[in-house]
């Protein structure tokens, strides 16, 4: 079925608008979420998952002074166990973003080049998938400006991107989105920017210009970079420059790491060789300050060592943007219990999947010494 056939126009969403006098993309998305979640008129799989989500287990675990949310969330199982970029035999796998359920509906955006869908894998109710209308590879290089445009339009939401070897569950190009400031690391980084302590974490300045600045977030369990700017072109330039240096670090140091594919090899599910550095992204736009805030989580891989163990020692986790933002999602009770009672295991999982201290040091040195950055 053509994705266009799943589009809901304003007349179809009309019963689900709260304020019918305010119709913009934020209110359209809110109406779509209500329509798809409706027990009578909605999408049965989402309705079922919302019921399942209402019984999830969730606790906060303090790990080296940093709070991490650990959940047992069966609605995320397809994403957690997805092996789209790990198998040699998935090049012809059916694409779930090209073949939507009959009742799965969405709204078109950005000149009808993307469709906004409600994500049935629920981290926070109302999570979105924003899929390209065409089956294009999961590479951000030519689509970061689309991410900027979406953030400026969907101002109620944080925009997310998972790289192909950094936790994406589909090779079909897509963003994700969730209501702003609902994930714990979003809140922690806001506290740091306001001068409040979060464990021993610290914002280390790397660059400051007239309209943009870049920080490395140190002692935060995983490597994080924060780029802020009030200018569309500057946030894009700073990101593209960052990607150049991160690619060099990936090419040099993601080699011969146990259970981790060497950087630059074939990605069979997209029928290309890897060229884009491994990373998770979050982008926000704040209309009240005209500021963009970009978080970059450079990755080695999306699977930790514990994933490759056997029997009782195995822990099934997939480390993508939600996990980078401090929400560690499990789909088996045994894994949930292990994570809940072992902060050291959580430390190891982040260490195994984030870039190493040596990689971050080399990247930081490049970012500091490049006067054009």
| SSE order, one letter for each helix or strand | HHHEEHEEEHEEHEEEHEEEEHEHHH
Strand content: 15-25%
Largest sheet: 10 strands, antiparallel
Q: What is the CA–CA distance across the termini?
A: 46 Å
Which CATH architecture? 2-Layer Sandwich
The CATH topology name reads HIT family, subunit A
Brief rundown of the structure:
The protein has 373 residues and is an alpha+beta fold. The chain is 29% helix and 23% strand. The strands form 3 sheets. It has a 10-stranded antiparallel sheet with strand order 3-4-5-7-6-13-14-10-9-8. Strands 1-2-15 form a 3-stranded mixed sheet. The protein has a two-stranded antiparallel sheet with strand order 11-12.
What features would you describe in this structure?
Helix content is 29%, strand content 23%. The protein contains eleven helices and 15 strands. Strand 1 and strand 2 form a beta hairpin. The chain is globular and about 55 Å long. The N and C termini lie far apart (46 Å). The relative contact order is 0.14. The model has no long low-confidence stretch (mean pLDDT 94).
Topology:
Layout: H1 10-13, H2 25-37, H3 44-53, E1 57-63, E2 66-72, H4 77-81, E3 106-109, E4 114-118, E5 128-132, H5 144-153, E6 157-162, E7 174-179, H6 184-193, E8 202-208, E9 212-218, E10 224-229, H7 232-253, E11 266-267, E12 272-273, E13 279-286, E14 291-298, H8 321-324, E15 327-330, H9 333-340, H10 343-353, H11 357-369
Parallel strand pairs: 2-15
Antiparallel strand pairs: 1-2, 3-4, 4-5, 5-7, 6-7, 6-13, 8-9, 9-10, 10-14, 11-12, 13-14
């Amino acid at each position: 079925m053509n994705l266009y056939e799943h589009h809901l126009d304003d007349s179809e969403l009309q019963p689900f608008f709260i304020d019918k006098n305010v119709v913009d993309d934020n209110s359209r998305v809110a109406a779509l979420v209500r329509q798809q979640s409706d027990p009578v008129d909605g999408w049965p799989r989402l309705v079922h998952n919302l019921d399942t989500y209402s019984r999830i287990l969730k606790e906060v675990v303090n790990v080296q002074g940093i709070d991490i949310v650990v959940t047992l969330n069966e609605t995320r199982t397809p994403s957690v166990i997805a092996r789209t970029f790990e198998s040699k035999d998935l090049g012809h796998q059916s694409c779930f973003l090209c073949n939507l359920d009959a009742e799965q509906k969405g709204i078109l955006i950005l000149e009808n080049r993307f469709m906004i869908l409600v994500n049935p894998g629920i981290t926070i109710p109302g999570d979105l998938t924003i899929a390209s209308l065409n089956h294009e590879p999961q590479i951000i290089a030519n689509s970061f400006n689309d991410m900027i445009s979406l953030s400026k339009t969907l101002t109620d939401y944080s925009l997310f991107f998972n790289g192909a070897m950094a936790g994406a569950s589909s090779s079909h190009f897509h963003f994700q989105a969730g209501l702003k400031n609902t994930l714990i690391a979003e809140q922690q980084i806001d506290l740091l920017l306001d001068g409040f302590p979060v464990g021993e974490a610290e914002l280390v300045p790397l660059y400051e210009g007239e309209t943009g600045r870049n920080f490395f977030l140190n002692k935060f369990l995983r490597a994080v970079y924060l780029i802020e700017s009030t200018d569309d072109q500057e946030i894009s330039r700073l990101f593209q420059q960052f990607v150049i240096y991160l690619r060099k670090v990936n090419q040099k140091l993601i080699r011969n790491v146990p259970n981790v594919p060497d950087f630059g090899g074939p990605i069979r599910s997209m029928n290309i060789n890897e060229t884009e550095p491994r990373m998770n992204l979050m982008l926000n736009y704040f209309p009240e300050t005209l500021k963009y805030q970009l978080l970059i989580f450079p990755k080695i891989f999306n699977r930790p060592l514990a994933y490759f163990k056997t029997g009782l020692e195995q822990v099934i986790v997939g480390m993508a943007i939600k996990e980078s933002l401090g929400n560690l999602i499990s789909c088996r009770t045994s894994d949930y219990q292990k994570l809940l009672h072992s902060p050291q295991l959580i430390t190891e999982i982040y260490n195994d999947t984030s870039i190493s201290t040596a990689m971050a040091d080399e990247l930081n040195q490049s970012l500091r010494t490049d006067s054009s950055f």
